[in-house]
């Protein structure tokens, strides 16, 4: 097994454990819940098999659902952002994506911020829409999406900076 697969497995386990043991217990003002586990989907290597990536994203979200007792909302949100990820990568990184040579810790900060932000907001909007599942609570869905997205994006950036293997 090469170091890339080991790194993916390690990231899978650490992010699930961090989410279910630490971040699921954070709830600021009833609106802000951080979900930095989506870093698994955000940072998954571009060159790998897309079908395998979608399957791993589903399994990853399913594990979070099992430990959180949330009935499949995380799995649905993870698979959705994994599915739309290639189009967003092409939009945010252009030729780097075309040549399959994206290294997230070496990309432009604004492009990375746009990429993280769009996928995080999509994930959270799907997650909270399925969790609340009531049209009369659209304002609450949007509030939770906005506030949790901001906090999640900040945590994801913090983690990518702290745990980046190579600096510019």
Automatic annotation (TrEMBL):
GO terms for biological process: regulation of cell shape. It is found in: Cell membrane. It is a multi-pass membrane protein. Belongs to the MreD family. InterPro entries: Cell_shape_determining_MreD (IPR007227). This is Rod shape-determining protein MreD. Keywords: Cell membrane, Cell shape, Membrane, Transmembrane, Transmembrane helix. The chain crosses the membrane at residues 12-30, 51-67, 114-133, 145-163. One of its GO terms (cellular component) is plasma membrane. It comes from Subsaximicrobium wynnwilliamsii. The keyword Cell membrane applies. The keyword DNA repair does not apply.
